[in-house]
Structures are given as structure tokens and as C-alpha cells.
Design brief:
The protein is an alpha+beta fold. It has two domains: 140 residues, Jelly Rolls; 92 residues, Orthogonal Bundle (Arc Repressor Mutant, subunit A), CATH 1.10.10. It has a four-stranded antiparallel beta sheet with strand order 1-8-3-6. A four-stranded antiparallel beta sheet has the order 2-7-4-5. A four-stranded antiparallel beta sheet has the order 9-10-12-11. A hairpin with a 4-residue loop joins strand 9 and strand 10. It is globular.
Length: 251
């Protein structure tokens, strides 16, 4: 008999290359959880007893400095593993995972990761690609903080969100989940005041349309220029990173 986790997750791209019997074996070991918007999946510093897969919804992973300042380390999209402290050789979670929208996740005991990765190499490869992508993003953001003016950092943060989670609307390209100015500030290493001031300027210039927890990019080409992207570079990164119906950013 197929498990509830199988019914929920079999459609994910992650499992399409695996035979059905393998998928059933992997998902039979998972436990389904529903996480309400704003609720944590795990907290920074807590024992890493489980690792997870996001099936539906959206998560953000926060990190706090010793002084208590919060940043958004990265976002988790459906079909991605997260909380894989065990794969990093850690016993605790390096950040706090919060549900940005009501989300459905699968959870496995951390102790089962080594066996699962050995028996199903495509899953291990997918997890390592996700971890590698987060690491590349972290390096890019360090470079941005060191070398970019704050307006460019804000524009770059919006482009990253559009490329992973943008969708067409009648008004333009909308980030496909609720997001606040504070979220953008934490991504761009700046203040809420600066993001609000910048958004107001860009709204007046016809670049954005911003509502409560909603950001629509009316003029993607202008946003790319504000981020300092060359036209050819933007076309390449947009087409490669934005395949599919929801990943729609193009110059």
C-alpha cells in the first residue's frame, strides 16, 4: 500500500529519475508534517535530529548573529532538501527554518541519511546541488555587501527571488509567495527604512508595484540594469535559472 508521503511527493522532479519501487521505499520512511505560516520547522542551534524535504509551500532559513541581528540565509523551494546538518558533519542546525506560507514537508531521522544516500545516489546528488547552490549564493551576497551600493543589492535580491519563484500576472512578474520589505532588507543586508525608501522611488519610476506582502516587477529590464547586470549576462542567467512556467524572468 502506498504511503501518504508517496501520494504527496511522487510528482516532484526529484523522484522522476527513480524507479517507482525506489521512490516508494524512500518515501515510506518519511513522516508528513504541515507547518503553518510563520511557524518554525527547527531553530538555530537545536539538535539536528531530522532532515527534511519541502513538498508544498515556501520556507526561509534565518541566521542570527551573536549580537542578535537576523539575516535570511536562503529560501527553500518545493522539491528541495533542507536541514541537512548531518551532511555537513554538524550535530545542530546552523539556522532557523520558518514557513513563509503554509507548507507541507517530509521528515526523516538524520541517522537514516547515510543509508538513504548510499542506496539512492540521485537523491544525494540533488541534496548536494542544493547545498552547493546555497553556498554559491552566500559567496555572491558577501561580494555584494563588500562591493555594491545598497540599491544594487536590493535589485539583486529581487532578481534572485524572481528567478526561483517568479510568475506572470497581468501587472508584471510577481514573486509567487508573500514577502515583506523586512524580508528584502534581511536578504540585502540593509534596513527596513532603506528598502521602503528605495521601493517608493522605484514605484514612482514604474519599476515595481508593491502591496502588502506583495512585490510585482513591472519592468524587469530596468531592474536588471539597477542590479548592474549586462544584457547578455542577464539573458543567460535568466534562461538557465528560470526554466518552467513559474521561472519566467527574461530580459
Amino acid at each position: 500500500m502506498r504511503s501518504t508521503s508517496y501520494t504527496l511527493a511522487r510528482h516532484l522532479d526529484l523522484f522522476r529519475s527513480l524507479p517507482d519501487a525506489q521512490v516508494q521505499d524512500v518515501l515510506a520512511q518519511a513522516r508528513v508534517r504541515t507547518v503553518d505560516e510563520g511557524a518554525p520547522v527547527f531553530a538555530q542551534g537545536a539538535p539536528a535530529l531530522r532532515f527534511f524535504l519541502l513538498v508544498e509551500g515556501r520556507l526561509k532559513v534565518m541566521q542570527a548573529s551573536p549580537e542578535g541581528r537576523q539575516i535570511i540565509a536562503h529560501w527553500i523551494d518545493p522539491g528541495q532538501f533542507f536541514g541537512l546538518a548531518v551532511a555537513l558533519g554538524r550535530n545542530d542546525y546552523p539556522g532557523t527554518a520558518l514557513a513563509a506560507t503554509r507548507s507541507t514537508i517530509l521528515a526523516w531521522p538524520s541517522a537514516s541519511w547515510a543509508k538513504l544516500a548510499a542506496l539512492h545516489p540521485p537523491l544525494a546528488e540533488a541534496a548536494l546541488r542544493t547545498l552547493g547552490g546555497h553556498l554559491q549564493d552566500a559567496f555572491a551576497r558577501l561580494r555584494e555587501v563588500a562591493a555594491m551600493r545598497v540599491e544594487r543589492r536590493i535589485a539583486s535580491a529581487l532578481l534572485r527571488l524572481l528567478r526561483s519563484s517568479g510568475q506572470h500576472t497581468r501587472a508584471g512578474l510577481q514573486i509567487a509567495f508573500p514577502i515583506t520589505r523586512q524580508d528584502i532588507a534581511e536578504m540585502a543586508a540593509t534596513t527596513l527604512y532603506t528598502v521602503s525608501r528605495t521601493f517608493s522611488s522605484w514605484e514612482n519610476a514604474g519599476v515595481l508595484a508593491v502591496g502588502r506582502r506583495r512585490v510585482v516587477v513591472v519592468n524587469p529590464q530596468m531592474l536588471m540594469r539597477l542590479a548592474g547586470e549586462e544584457r547578455g549576462e542577464a539573458r543567460t542567467s535568466g534562461s538557465e535559472a528560470c526554466r518552467g512556467k513559474r521561472k519566467v524572468l527574461h530580459p
